[in-house]
Amino acid sequence: QVRLVESGGGLVQAGGSLRLSCSAPGTRFTIYTMGWYRQAPGKERELVATITSDDITNYADSVKGRFTISRDNANTVYLQMNSLNPEDTAVYYCNAHWIAGLAWGQGTHVTVSS
Q1: What residue ranges in 1-114 does DSSP mark as E strands?
Q2: How many CB atoms lie under 10 A from the CB of residue 44?
């Protein structure tokens, strides 16, 4: 089993920055692509960014140029979020593809005030 632990959410003013972290502590399994998704109140969960085990990245159009996904080892992924705006307010979820399927974190709240 893969367990994901997220951190780094919070309240920030528009134009500010936050950095989210997600790790899979103690996992014995190989993790392939990792990603960040978000779900705003009343909306469906949507892709934010993904990164493969070869560091190939993919971003939603709405965050390109503002957010950066990175990975410093096989089991930890970050999301640097700059120039935040109120439309970025959501619960952010990390996920990870491993041999038995897809694992999700518990989510971390990001609130951007205007």
Answers
A1: 5-7, 10-13, 18-23, 31-39, 46-51, 57-59, 67-73, 76-81, 90-98, 101-104, 108-113
A2: 7
Amino acid present at 1: Q
108 residue type, one letter:
T
Query: How far is it, in rounded angstroms, from Cα 109 to Cα 47?
Result: 16
Q: Return the pLDDT at 55.
A: 93
- Pair type for strands 18-23 and 10-13: unpaired
pLDDT tens digits along 5-55: 999 999 999 999 999 999 998 888 888 999 999 999 999 999 999 999 999
Spatial separation of the C-alpha atoms in residues 82 and 92, rounded to whole Å:
15
Count Cα neighbours of 52 within 13 Å in the Cβ-side half-sphere.
4
- What is the phi/psi pair of residue 67, to 5°? -110, 150
User: In angstroms, rounded to a whole number, what is the distance separating the alpha carbons of residues 72 and 91?
Assistant: 23
